[in-house]
Amino acid sequence: MRVFQAVVDEGGFAAAARWLELSPPVVTRLVADLEQHLGTRLLQRTTRKLALTEAGDAYLARVRSILHEIEDAEAAAAASTRDLRGTIRIVASPVLATNFLAPLLSEWHALHPRLMLDIDIDAYASSRVDEFDVTFMVAAENFDANIVARPLMQGESIVVAAPGYLARKGLPLPGQPQDLLQHDYLRDSGMAARAHPGLGRKLRLSHVDGLQPPQELDVPSVVLQSISTEVLMRAAVDGMGVAVAPRLLAHEYLAQGELVQLLPGWIYARYTVYAALPSGRMLPARTKVFLDFLSEQVRKSMAMRKQIESYPGLPAGEAA
Q: How far apart, in Å, are the Cα atoms of 71 and each of 78, 86, 133, 230, 256?
C-alpha cells in the first residue's frame, strides 16, 4: 500500500523507487501483487504517463486514510516528542501558505526533522477539512460553523493605496468613507464573500470603535477583481487603485512606504485565522505538536509587534 501510494505521489515507478530506496523491479512487482490480490487494475500504464483507474482512485483515498492511522498509532507509541515522525498533511489558501506558514517552515524543520509537512494549496481550503490533518482558513468575526477549529490569530482588513496613485487621484479625507466613490477599486471577491456575503460589489466599512454607523459604498469603478489577495496587493503597490488587504499582509508595504492606509479608524472587517481539524478523529501527537508550535510563534510575533508599537521613537504609521 505504501509503494502504491508512492508511485502515484511521485508520478511513476522509477521515481517511487528512488523515494523508497528500492529497485524499480521491486516497486513494479509490489504494485502488480497488490492488483492481483485485489482482482482489479489500479493504474493505467502507458509509455508517456501513469493514471489512476476509477478503482485505483477510490482505493488510494482509503489507503491514505489507513496509512495515516498507522502513522498515528506509531506516533502515539513514541516515548517523547523528539521521536515523533511521519507526515502532517496540510491544506491552506495561497495567501496563508505564503505569508503565514512559509516563514515558519525552516524553524519547524530544525525542531522536528523527522516530521514532514505535505502542504496543499487551495483557495477554497475550508471545503476540504476532512481530507487533511490541518486546514488553515480565514473567517470573518461572525463565523459560526460546525467544525473543530483552533483560533490562531486575529486581525483586521484595511483600505490601502500607493502614494503614486493617491498623488494622481487625491487622498480621501479622514472620517469620510464616501470619498472612496471617486476612486478605482481593486475588489477581493473571496474576502467579500467571507466578510460581507450578499453585498455584491459594494464596499462596506465599519468604524473601529463602533461610534459611527457602517458605510456601504456602491463603488462605481471596479477596475480589477480577483480571488487572489496577492494579485490585488501587487496591483495596489503598482498604483492601479484602492484595495482592501489584511494588515498582516500589508504591514511590510506600509512600513516601507509603498502603501498608505486610507481612512484610519475605519476597517473592512475583522477576521480570525483558524486551524480546522477533521471531525471524528483523535488528534495525533504530531499534529498537536505542530499546532502548539504555531501558537507559540504567533504569541511571540504579537508580543514583538506590541513592543515595536510602544517604542516611543517610532512614528505611529510605521508600526502598522
A: 11, 6, 12, 36, 45
pLDDT band at 173 (very low <50, low <70, confident <90, very high): confident
Helices vs. strands in the chain: H and E counts, helices first = 11, 14
**pLDDT > 70 in the chain, percent:** 87
The grid coordinates listed for 319 are 508600526
- Nearest Cα neighbor of 184 from 234, 227, 240 is 240
φ, ψ for residue 257, nearest 5 deg:
80, 10
Contact call for residues 133 and 119 (beta carbons, < 8 A): no
Q: Which three cell numbers stand for residue 140?
A: 470573518
- Measured in degrees and rounded to the nearest 5, phi and psi for residue 282 equal -65, 145
Alpha carbon separation from 205 to 25, 60, 102, 175, 192 (Å, rounded): 63, 47, 31, 11, 12
Instruction: Give me the phi and psi of 70, to 5 degrees please.
Output: -65, -45
pLDDT tens figures, 52-82 = 999 999 999 889 888 887 877 776 665 545 5
Beta carbons of 162 and 261 less than 8 angstroms apart: no
Q: How far apart are CA 34 and CA 26, in angstroms?
A: 12
Distance CA 87, CA 205 (A): 42
Spatial CA neighbour of 135 closest among 145, 150, 146:
150
Model pTM greater than 0.85? no
Length of the chain: 320
